[in-house]
Amino acid sequence: MMPALLAISPLILVCLSVVGVMLSIAWRRNHALNAILSAVGLNAALLALLFGWTLGDVDVTALLVVDDLSRFGGVLVLVSTLACVTLAHHYLEGYEGPRDEFYLLLLSAAAGGLVLVSARHMATLFFGIELLSMPLFGMLAYTFRDRGALESGIKYMVLSAAATAFLLFGMALLYAVTGTLEFAALGDALATYGNDTWLLAGAGMMLVGLSFKLSIVPFHLWTPDVYQGGPGPATTFLATASKVAVFLVLLRLFQSALAFHENWWHDLLGFIALITMLVGNLLALTQTDLKRLLGYSSIAHFGYLLVALVVNEGLATETVGIYLVTYVVTTLGAFGVVTLVSSPYTATGGTADASPLHHYRGLFWRRPYLTAVMTVSLLSLAGIPFTAGFIGKFYIIAVGVEAHRWWLVGGVVLGSAIGLYYYLRVMVTLFLIEPGMQNRDATYDWAARAGGMVVLGVATLVIVLGLYPTPMINWVSWIAS
Fold it and tell me: Which long-range contacts (CB under 8 A, 24 or more apart) does 364-370 make?
């Protein structure tokens, strides 16, 4: 009993933080106090998670397993959530409505992410993904007086409900054929039932449901609209912690229950990966809105990640881990700059965030260090050498070469070349002379605030991991072994 409690102590601490913030709100509303309580709870959970590595793999129940992969995912979820808390404090200072409830939603979503990365049963997968998604409805529509935020929350809610329907129907079909919902038992059942039609239909519907959450083509259309309209901290969480948790549970499924070995299945996944990376990059070319551009960029990056799932052998697990680390660090930097330029919140009608690209024109002449953070993040997203993103791209190409998937390697190279164009376009905009048109600016003390320190820290980490990736590679290799 004690090892199990220690293993799930990060989840318990996050849930206790939710209760603590709730009681604090009931006692007296204090925005700074509740932000601090949230940060303290997340730090405590992170420390408990790191301590838990000494316990080894722990089968908590038939529904949850705490192993190296789940702890790895937990670190990424908690770090991303902690960054969002620090960014949200400054962002919400200008919001006239209730501000404290945002932290309740954020902590609840983080708890859902922790459940999801530890899931080994379809029931836990469902509970985790709903606990992760439902608070996001409120977070994305939190500044509901803005048309863009309200539209963002409603679109995500409707499409998430559709994804849930596919997910549940797929689970029902799998259970009807195999009589089990446990990942490992489903894997064993595949050897018996092989290519049963209903089994394949169930697996396909589950893949559709998870593809909605990950913005995989052709289930990606909601992404740019939701990214554009949602408040900066909520969009940052959706782009990092939410997608990491869903992708890791998809990886666990592919390694156990859904790891079909038929060539046609791998070819189908490969085709999906190819069109996802190409469509995401091609649609980003025409964007004049930075948050929409980052949304399409996110679609392309998860197309690259699907290459590792297609291979599903050799360096695949290590590649997923390294790419997720580099993606999270880089995305926190890019969306962190967007959130800081948009802070504090100003009710202007439509979309209140600094979303149009012209808001960033000449940012270098106003905030040079913030521009440096955005430039480093964009270079990393493009996969330029000496940045963390280059290490992730190198591993994706290496795993494709190892499996002789040359057409996927070609897709990664072509997608990266297309991506380089629009990333450079954004970087050029940052250094142009300021026009007479409207622009936005971060506050003068942005670097002294917690959110500013986090953004500067992740930008430094992007460079450090690009120059000296050995500790990260060793850590992920140990987890994958």
Answer: 364/430, 364/431, 365/433, 365/434, 366/434, 366/441, 367/441, 367/442, 367/446, 369/447, 369/456, 370/337, 370/340, 370/341, 370/442, 370/446, 370/447, 370/455
